Amino acid sequence: MRIVFLLSAWLLSFGVMAAPGDMATLDRSTWPEQLSNPTLFDVASRAEILMFARVLLASESLDEPALAQRLGLRTINMESINRVRQRLWQRLLANYNFAQQSCDQDASFCFLVEDMPSLREQAGKFQVSEDSYYIRWAEPSRLFHSQYLDEQLRKAALFPQTSSEIDRFGDYERNGEAMHDRLFLLTFDSAANALPDNTAWVSEFLRKANMSGTFFVLGKDIQARLTERSVASLQSTYSAQCVGVQGWEFRSHSHWQDWQDSVRRSVELIKSKLPENYVPLFRPPDGQRRSDAEGFFKAQGLQVALWDIDAQDGAGKLKASQSAQRVLTLMLLWRHGVIDFNVKQDGVKTALPWLMTQTSQSGIGWEDCQSGFR
């Protein structure tokens, strides 16, 4: 059996960081095993959890000025950062507890973790030895999690002045944290660009796989489609899928004076044209929404639909293969959640099939879109 050894001298390597704005991705070929059964999914999951816990713990040694410099920000909201860190630790502990249930079948990356102090202790000691079967994965994974942590802490540092998916404003907002272990929900954003629109391709791919996803649409896009094709054609495109709204157009709903009208008009249009597909969900473009909107959304019967796992395929910074590998790595880390793809990037036609192939025997499940945010 392959053994992962513990070494303690690793603090210095944490200082090598990507510049602010770099998106984390990990070449999954550095991991030596296919996720060909649930036990091997757990092995890879334990490894990613411990690596992320290691860099998270090391980040706590930075004082506020040093952390601000690291994140490329002049000022940071430490209260928000600490709240997000605490939630991250809670998720890591819960996920490791799930992942270690198969340790009697494969003991790789299995250490004594019973509570938060023991998780932090193991994170502080975690290192992969030079003669380990997993050594090719270790440094690329460390770099990935360091970059990914910076992404999360940067969003936390700006919250709530700049809202994002990093935190919720109340129970009327949902992400994937409450989902069951090994369950994931596919969601697709529209984004600002009009073309290419891969909705028809993605929805057909999902139907053939007997799967469903939630498509968050822009009101103006649906209106434009209806000038070119019939309602029946539109309904056929979204057959067996769910449709939520992203507003009338893709712009921040945190400072837009007409944001309420944007949401209402979109809901009215989708409910009237796609009544079988409509779900009462609003996804804020770029995660930006107002902190005082609870009354409005409850009056409209809507929930704000956030996400946990971002493919980062809309910014043009990652290739399709990089987005797919990022998503898989985060699936191993978080073990459940809402995945966010951009349906208006051609990369989704490469990333989605690759992801299905890689996870087909891993023991994960894909949540039905009708129940995903409940």
UniProtKB/TrEMBL annotation:
Residues 179-303 form the NodB homology domain. The keyword Plastid does not apply. GO terms for molecular function: hydrolase activity, acting on carbon-nitrogen (but not peptide) bonds. Keywords: Signal. One of its GO terms (biological process) is carbohydrate metabolic process. The keyword Signal applies. Residues 1-18 form the signal peptide. Pfam families: Polysacc_deac_1. It comes from the Bacteria. InterPro entries: Glyco_hydro/deAcase_b/a-brl, NODB_dom, Polysacc_deacetylase_ArnD. PANTHER family: GLYCOSYL TRANSFERASE-RELATED (PTHR10587). This is Polysaccharide deacetylase. It comes from Pseudomonas reinekei.
